[in-house]
Amino acid sequence: MDLQTDITYLKGIGPQRAQLLQKELGIATVGDLLEHFPTSFLDRSQVYKIADLRGAEMPMIQIRGRFIAASMQGEGAKTRLVTMFTDGTGVIEVVWFRNAASIRKSLNPDITYVLFGKPTYYNNHWQLVHPELDTEASAEKRIGLRGVYPLTEGLRNRGVTSRRLHEWMLTALDSKINIPETLPAEIVRTNGLISRADALRAIHRPANMVEAERARHRLKFEELFYLQLNIIRYGRNRKSALKGHVFSKIGHFFNTFYAQFLPFELTGAQKRVIREIRSDMNTGRQMNRLLQGDVGSGKTLVALLTMLIAIDNGTQTCLMAPTEILATQHFESISQMAGVLGLNIKLLTGSTPKRQRDEIHAQLLDGSLNILIGTHAVIEDNVRFARLGYVVIDEQHRFGVAQRARLWQKAELAPHVLVMTATPIPRTLAMTVYGDLDVSIIDELPPGRKPVTTVLRYDTQRQQIYNALHRQLLAGRQAYIVYPLIDENPKLELRDLQTGFDNITHLFSDFKVAMVHGRMKPADKERQMQLFVSGQARILVATTVIEVGVNVPNASVMIIENAERFGLSQLHQLRGRVGRGADQSYCILMSRPELGRDSRHRLQVMTSTTDGFILAEEDMKLRGPGDIEGTAQSGLHIDLKIASLVSDTPILEQARAAAERLLDADPRLDSYPTLRLTLSRLFDRTMDWARIS
Ligand code: ADP
Ligand code: MG
């Protein structure tokens, strides 16, 4: 028997069970079955003493003893078997509701039994309901650890239990099954791993926790190793395959701007990142680089300077932003900074009038347009460039992969691509989702920035908050007040926002208050935003539409209402709107006093750090990697069977290093047919998202 054998060959699994397993868990072969891993283990190596039961609830435990009394109680459908069981140290009540009569008949007061179950303290005595029941002899076979297997509702309904699954695992393992090694011998050896055969045996039938852990380690390593091998190989292949524009010179525009019009001294991190991008653009291969930099770290200036390099080398460039407001703001700040250079810079969004749009199209085609800034509008079919050399995508998680692909198709020679993100991505996730991209990190804020002071406050403290806000307004500052989006109920959301707005307008009648929300007409939104950006309005009451990009350095206060409703990364993005100038800024998280554990933890983390990477890690711990912004749309479906991107960072790093070393030595895996085979089995269906990033 081998791993490809159909599961119907296993004793106890007929065609109906097989169909059920296929439907519920996608298990068709013995190999599939053995890769259905337990999530935890029940310990049947220890026998517990009844006298040692403590607390109100115990884990699953095993006790050994005899039945000293048994009686049927209740009537009709409610009939149950109530028994007394002793191990000599105490007595426990054991109850059966199902099959009560037949169990009663089978119980023998002269035999020693082993019970396995979860005792609860009930009505002043310990009770065990529906334990597993074995005679001492048959319990011998169950000694040791037993896996607890994930089940579906469908399986449960059809009577398939974790114990049943475990029995099938043992049947499979006991049937002379051939389990080949899938990792190269030197990797098994140098990483201190056990063989795949040993691991599959031990994960389902470990002698003790140490063995179970070793098996788990090996299987996690294997899973992460293949993930990394695949992504690194893919990235390397693409790099060697895809030709790119060669930007060999630093010319007039870059030099002039750098020497005469640079608005600030660049930070060390900005300089380093520009150098990294520059050297990528000169290799003859297409650049695919991810630029991570916290909110306010100065990514726009990096984008501009590197775009000037592209223009110096005779190509056009494009900057894409996720929202109209953000695109407009980019357009304004880039025009303001680079306008003096005499470049042709244009903005293209959904609301660009037809005549201007036609003009832009024409200028793109005749090559006279240097920098196109815009929203999704720039990837519409009728937008064509004469020579697109470089594309910058801001806040990429808002763009789907397919959308990026369309931009890609606009050029004969692939443009260099820089994806900028202010959503820090935990390292493990970056290695996986963006494992084939090169990553640059701006890990330094411009000088003079003070970290935003963040506090958690409750409704009872509202008056103090407003007093403090008033002082800031008197000192000339501006403030944001943010209300959560309530997706399920837009009416409620608007009402909250409107009430908040009326209240604030009333309380701060000396100051102009603006308001924006997602359901406004774009023109109205634009007008309200403009009031705030220009400084006429001193307070902006808003929903999360201000989350991305808005840059008002004079704003020093952000009050977030119902902060417990926001996720960590969202709170972090919001907070990034303040602390952009030289003044001390404040972020006040308003919340209900009674909070769930996760919400409280989230808000406490927010008050304790402003480091986006720490927050991203915490966010991933709280929500799991699947929900982290950016992964859902990354096109990569990470469906891990046993490893965790949250808690297995060390193994991931180890596996990645092993994969890199292997590919260094043998880039095409010529001497590893098994690896190639396994890779194509695992990943053939999922690829092709990376080349278009
Ligand atoms: P983000 O990385 O969030 O896109 P921005 O590019 O909007 O950040 O920059 C945030 C603010 O910092 C802007 O007001 C920008 O003008 C300013 N800034 C950028 N680089 C520097 C620098 N080297 N020194 C001082 N201020 C800078
Ligand atoms: Mg930005």
Task: Describe the protein in words.
The protein is α/β, with parallel strands linked by helices. It has 24 helices and 22 strands. The chain has a seven-stranded mixed sheet with strand order 6-7-4-3-2-5-8. Strands 12-13-11-14-15-10-16 form a seven-stranded parallel sheet, with helices on both faces. It has a six-stranded parallel sheet with strand order 17-22-21-18-20-19, sandwiched between helices. A hairpin with a 6-residue loop joins strand 2 (61-73) and strand 3 (80-86). The longest helix has 33 residues, at 209-241. The structure holds adenosine-5'-diphosphate and magnesium ion. Residues 299-300, 394, 549 line the site of magnesium ion.
CATH superfamily of the largest domain: P-loop containing nucleotide triphosphate hydrolases
Q: Given the helix and strand composition, which structural class is it?
A: alpha/beta
Count of individual beta strands:
22
Q: What's the CATH C level of the largest domain? A: Alpha Beta
Shape by Cα distribution: globular
- In angstroms, what is the radius of gyration? 32 Å
CATH architecture of the largest domain: 3-Layer(aba) Sandwich
Calculate the mean pLDDT score and round it.
87
Q: Numbering strands along the chain, what is their spatial order in the largest sheet?
A: 6-7-4-3-2-5-8
Sheet of most strands: 7 strands, mixed
Number of domains: 4
Distance between the termini: 44 Å
Q: Which ranges are low-confidence, i.e. pLDDT below 50, for 5 or more consecutive residues?
A: 628-637, 686-693
* CATH domain topology of the largest domain: Rossmann fold
- Strand share of the residues? 15-25%
**Helicity level:** 25-40%
Q: Number of helical segments? A: 24
Unique bound compounds:
adenosine-5'-diphosphate, magnesium ion
